């Protein structure tokens, strides 16, 4: 029997039945509600383990009024939501951002409902789209002389500290050479990225150095793409160790794969990256690094990395 709201008559019956020593199961049969409804009603609305029908009814009415007002659509609430959605925040990120500020706020499902019925207009183009998982199409090889991910320090596996980075490249359609080198910290999810004219190993290794030369670096993890074949040079330049995931095991670098997916929302697959400027890329990475993340307890990657 599903949960339903009780009325004053049913609450009076509960009060009388309790005074007569009836069990909660017997009460549920008397008032025609589920046993869980009776348990919930008595637990929520009793005072010092005493259930009084009139008090219980007043409490229920007050609680319902609070919930109803919290979910009421108004122009100020709509503006707050729209201001965040246009920065490509998801409804769930918006809700938790305002709740962390100590504000009462509607749930993310309510925001989606308002969008669906047209109360929030002109926001669809800003919403994050969910598509097929991004799959690399580059040539693979088992990296010669490279260190296996299975030998990577436990601190990196457990995301216990800063400085353990995952590496990857995002590339243009076939026939186009321009690519983006992406680097993500495993602990804080901070994204760093740079456009490169090609995916040659020397070009990519130089980009990695430029992105990380002022960062704290303990380990690097990459796939077996040939663009990372200058791994010894990378290790020397950054005074670190580079580990390679197993071939065709993208889940071993899940942080970077997921972050590439976030970047692909702004640079969809099939886009010629030669048409993307460094200013554009900087703007996209800033949006990603300054939005609250569920995995970071609704903190931003930027704050988690640089201010903690």
UniProtKB/TrEMBL annotation:
The UniProt entry, under InterPro entries, shows:
Homeodomain-like_sf, Integrase_cat-core, IS30-like_HTH, RNaseH-like_sf, RNaseH_sf, Transposase-Integrase, Transposase_IS30-like, Transposase_IS30_CS
What are the record keywords, sorted?
Answer: DNA recombination, DNA-binding, Transposition
Q: Which SUPFAM superfamilies match?
A: Homeodomain-like, Ribonuclease H-like
Q: Domain of life of the organism in this record?
A: Bacteria
Q: Which Pfam families match?
A: HTH_38 (PF13936), rve (PF00665)
- Residue ranges of domain Integrase catalytic in the record: 149-308
Q: Give the record's family classification.
A: Belongs to the transposase IS30 family.
For this protein, the record's NCBIfam families field holds: transpos_IS30
Name it. Answer: IS30 family transposase
